[in-house]
Amino acid sequence: MFAIYSSTQPVEAIEQSDAQTRAAEVSGNTPAAAQTAATIIKTNTIATAPAKISPIKPGVNADYEALVKKQAEDKAKAEAAAKAKADAEAKAKADAAAKAKTQAKVVTVSHQTTSQPAATSGVNKGTFKVTFYDPAAMGSSMGYGGIAANLSVLPRGTRVKIQMSNGVTLYRTVNDTGGFAAGNPHQIDVAMPNSQIPAAGVLSATVTIIG
Protein backbone atom coordinates (compact mmCIF):
# COMPACT_ATOMS: atom_id res chain seq x y z
CA MET A 1 0.00 0.00 0.00
CA PHE A 2 1.15 3.49 -0.75
CA ALA A 3 0.42 6.61 1.31
CA ILE A 4 -0.86 9.77 -0.54
CA TYR A 5 0.25 13.18 0.74
CA SER A 6 -1.34 16.49 -0.32
CA SER A 7 0.27 19.93 -0.27
CA THR A 8 -3.04 21.76 -0.17
CA GLN A 9 -3.81 24.22 2.54
CA PRO A 10 -5.73 23.17 5.50
CA VAL A 11 -9.45 23.46 5.30
CA GLU A 12 -9.38 26.05 7.98
CA ALA A 13 -7.11 28.37 5.93
CA ILE A 14 -9.28 28.08 2.83
CA GLU A 15 -12.37 28.72 4.72
CA GLN A 16 -10.80 31.75 6.41
CA SER A 17 -9.69 33.32 3.03
CA ASP A 18 -13.07 32.82 1.46
CA ALA A 19 -14.69 34.32 4.48
CA GLN A 20 -12.53 37.47 4.22
CA THR A 21 -13.30 37.85 0.49
CA ARG A 22 -17.03 37.54 1.07
CA ALA A 23 -16.80 40.05 3.90
CA ALA A 24 -14.96 42.53 1.65
CA GLU A 25 -17.50 42.08 -1.11
CA VAL A 26 -20.35 42.63 1.30
CA SER A 27 -18.79 45.80 2.70
CA GLY A 28 -17.73 47.14 -0.74
CA ASN A 29 -14.06 47.39 0.21
CA THR A 30 -12.61 45.48 -2.74
CA PRO A 31 -9.63 47.08 -4.62
CA ALA A 32 -11.82 47.78 -7.67
CA ALA A 33 -14.43 49.43 -5.49
CA ALA A 34 -11.77 51.53 -3.84
CA GLN A 35 -10.50 52.79 -7.23
CA THR A 36 -14.02 53.59 -8.40
CA ALA A 37 -14.71 55.54 -5.21
CA ALA A 38 -11.49 57.55 -5.68
CA THR A 39 -12.44 58.43 -9.29
CA ILE A 40 -15.90 59.57 -8.22
CA ILE A 41 -14.44 61.77 -5.50
CA LYS A 42 -12.00 63.41 -7.95
CA THR A 43 -14.77 63.98 -10.53
CA ASN A 44 -17.02 65.57 -7.93
CA THR A 45 -14.18 67.82 -6.83
CA ILE A 46 -13.66 69.13 -10.40
CA ALA A 47 -17.41 69.62 -10.91
CA THR A 48 -17.96 71.49 -7.67
CA ALA A 49 -14.80 73.64 -7.79
CA PRO A 50 -13.74 74.18 -11.44
CA ALA A 51 -11.91 77.42 -10.57
CA LYS A 52 -9.32 75.44 -8.70
CA ILE A 53 -8.35 73.61 -11.87
CA SER A 54 -5.56 75.32 -13.87
CA PRO A 55 -6.92 76.54 -17.29
CA ILE A 56 -5.43 75.11 -20.45
CA LYS A 57 -3.44 77.74 -22.33
CA PRO A 58 -3.07 77.28 -26.09
CA GLY A 59 0.45 77.37 -27.40
CA VAL A 60 1.80 80.07 -29.80
CA ASN A 61 3.05 79.06 -33.27
CA ALA A 62 5.91 81.51 -33.81
CA ASP A 63 6.47 80.48 -37.45
CA TYR A 64 2.80 81.00 -38.31
CA GLU A 65 2.70 84.39 -36.59
CA ALA A 66 5.84 85.46 -38.49
CA LEU A 67 4.29 84.33 -41.79
CA VAL A 68 1.08 86.28 -41.15
CA LYS A 69 3.08 89.38 -40.25
CA LYS A 70 5.23 89.12 -43.39
CA GLN A 71 2.17 88.67 -45.60
CA ALA A 72 0.61 91.81 -44.10
CA GLU A 73 3.82 93.78 -44.65
CA ASP A 74 4.12 92.56 -48.26
CA LYS A 75 0.51 93.53 -48.94
CA ALA A 76 1.06 97.01 -47.50
CA LYS A 77 4.22 97.47 -49.61
CA ALA A 78 2.42 96.32 -52.77
CA GLU A 79 -0.48 98.71 -52.13
CA ALA A 80 1.95 101.59 -51.49
CA ALA A 81 3.86 100.82 -54.69
CA ALA A 82 0.65 100.64 -56.73
CA LYS A 83 -0.51 103.98 -55.31
CA ALA A 84 2.86 105.59 -56.04
CA LYS A 85 2.74 104.30 -59.63
CA ALA A 86 -0.82 105.57 -60.12
CA ASP A 87 0.13 108.98 -58.70
CA ALA A 88 3.19 109.16 -61.00
CA GLU A 89 1.10 108.26 -64.05
CA ALA A 90 -1.54 110.84 -63.13
CA LYS A 91 1.15 113.51 -62.66
CA ALA A 92 2.78 112.63 -65.99
CA LYS A 93 -0.59 112.84 -67.71
CA ALA A 94 -1.34 116.18 -66.11
CA ASP A 95 2.12 117.51 -67.02
CA ALA A 96 1.67 116.36 -70.63
CA ALA A 97 -1.74 118.03 -70.82
CA ALA A 98 -0.33 121.24 -69.35
CA LYS A 99 2.61 121.14 -71.78
CA ALA A 100 0.29 120.57 -74.74
CA LYS A 101 -1.91 123.44 -73.60
CA THR A 102 1.12 125.72 -73.26
CA GLN A 103 2.40 124.75 -76.69
CA ALA A 104 -1.02 125.35 -78.22
CA LYS A 105 -1.10 128.76 -76.57
CA VAL A 106 2.37 129.58 -77.89
CA VAL A 107 1.37 128.51 -81.40
CA THR A 108 -1.79 130.59 -81.18
CA VAL A 109 0.15 133.64 -80.05
CA SER A 110 2.71 133.03 -82.79
CA HIS A 111 -0.02 132.82 -85.39
CA GLN A 112 -1.60 135.94 -84.05
CA THR A 113 1.73 137.72 -84.21
CA THR A 114 2.64 136.64 -87.72
CA SER A 115 -0.81 136.76 -89.25
CA GLN A 116 -1.55 139.64 -91.55
CA PRO A 117 -4.05 142.24 -90.36
CA ALA A 118 -7.23 142.50 -92.32
CA ALA A 119 -7.31 145.43 -94.70
CA THR A 120 -9.86 148.17 -94.14
CA SER A 121 -12.09 148.83 -97.12
CA GLY A 122 -11.98 152.30 -98.68
CA VAL A 123 -8.53 153.19 -97.29
CA ASN A 124 -6.15 154.93 -99.68
CA LYS A 125 -2.75 153.29 -99.14
CA GLY A 126 -0.91 156.02 -101.05
CA THR A 127 1.35 155.94 -104.09
CA PHE A 128 3.03 152.71 -105.10
CA LYS A 129 5.67 151.79 -107.64
CA VAL A 130 4.09 149.51 -110.21
CA THR A 131 5.96 146.79 -112.10
CA PHE A 132 4.55 143.99 -114.26
CA TYR A 133 5.11 140.29 -114.86
CA ASP A 134 3.55 137.54 -116.98
CA PRO A 135 2.82 134.44 -114.82
CA ALA A 136 2.38 132.24 -117.89
CA ALA A 137 5.84 133.20 -119.16
CA MET A 138 7.23 132.13 -115.78
CA GLY A 139 5.45 128.77 -115.92
CA SER A 140 2.88 129.77 -113.31
CA SER A 141 -0.83 129.01 -113.53
CA MET A 142 -1.92 131.78 -111.14
CA GLY A 143 -3.57 133.75 -113.95
CA TYR A 144 -3.81 137.50 -114.42
CA GLY A 145 -6.21 138.50 -111.66
CA GLY A 146 -3.64 139.05 -108.94
CA ILE A 147 -0.71 141.13 -107.81
CA ALA A 148 2.34 140.51 -105.66
CA ALA A 149 2.87 142.88 -102.75
CA ASN A 150 4.41 143.31 -99.32
CA LEU A 151 1.96 141.28 -97.27
CA SER A 152 2.45 143.38 -94.15
CA VAL A 153 1.15 146.39 -96.10
CA LEU A 154 -1.40 144.67 -98.32
CA PRO A 155 -2.40 141.32 -96.76
CA ARG A 156 -3.01 138.33 -98.97
CA GLY A 157 -6.57 138.28 -100.28
CA THR A 158 -6.98 142.08 -100.19
CA ARG A 159 -8.96 143.49 -103.10
CA VAL A 160 -7.45 146.75 -104.42
CA LYS A 161 -8.15 149.47 -106.94
CA ILE A 162 -5.01 150.55 -108.85
CA GLN A 163 -5.17 153.96 -110.57
CA MET A 164 -2.00 154.03 -112.70
CA SER A 165 -0.20 157.12 -113.87
CA ASN A 166 -1.00 156.29 -117.52
CA GLY A 167 -4.71 156.70 -116.77
CA VAL A 168 -5.55 153.01 -116.64
CA THR A 169 -7.45 151.68 -113.62
CA LEU A 170 -7.08 148.04 -112.62
CA TYR A 171 -8.84 145.92 -110.02
CA ARG A 172 -6.75 143.13 -108.59
CA THR A 173 -6.44 140.79 -105.58
CA VAL A 174 -3.23 140.33 -103.59
CA ASN A 175 -2.26 136.66 -104.05
CA ASP A 176 1.54 136.65 -103.93
CA THR A 177 4.62 138.42 -102.69
CA GLY A 178 8.05 139.01 -104.19
CA GLY A 179 11.68 139.54 -103.31
CA PHE A 180 11.22 143.28 -103.81
CA ALA A 181 8.73 143.53 -100.95
CA ALA A 182 11.31 143.55 -98.15
CA GLY A 183 13.30 146.43 -99.62
CA ASN A 184 10.38 148.43 -101.05
CA PRO A 185 7.09 147.78 -99.26
CA HIS A 186 5.32 150.35 -101.42
CA GLN A 187 5.72 148.42 -104.63
CA ILE A 188 3.30 146.09 -106.35
CA ASP A 189 3.96 143.66 -109.18
CA VAL A 190 0.90 143.37 -111.40
CA ALA A 191 0.14 140.14 -113.31
CA MET A 192 -0.41 140.95 -117.00
CA PRO A 193 0.20 139.28 -120.36
CA ASN A 194 3.44 140.42 -121.95
CA SER A 195 1.48 141.80 -124.89
CA GLN A 196 -0.39 144.23 -122.62
CA ILE A 197 2.43 145.42 -120.38
CA PRO A 198 2.96 149.20 -120.82
CA ALA A 199 5.98 150.13 -122.85
CA ALA A 200 7.32 152.22 -119.98
CA GLY A 201 7.62 149.05 -117.94
CA VAL A 202 7.46 150.91 -114.61
CA LEU A 203 4.65 153.22 -113.53
CA SER A 204 3.30 154.73 -110.36
CA ALA A 205 -0.20 154.24 -109.03
CA THR A 206 -2.56 155.19 -106.27
CA VAL A 207 -3.70 152.06 -104.46
CA THR A 208 -7.00 151.99 -102.61
CA ILE A 209 -8.36 149.00 -100.67
CA ILE A 210 -11.85 148.06 -101.82
CA GLY A 211 -12.34 144.82 -99.99
UniProtKB/TrEMBL annotation:
Q: Enumerate the UniProt keywords alphabetically.
A: Coiled coil, Hydrolase
Task: Give GO MF terms, alphabetically.
Answer: hydrolase activity
Q: Which domain of life is it from?
A: Bacteria
- Residue runs in coiled coils: 61-89
Question: Under what name is this protein listed?
Answer: Hydrolase
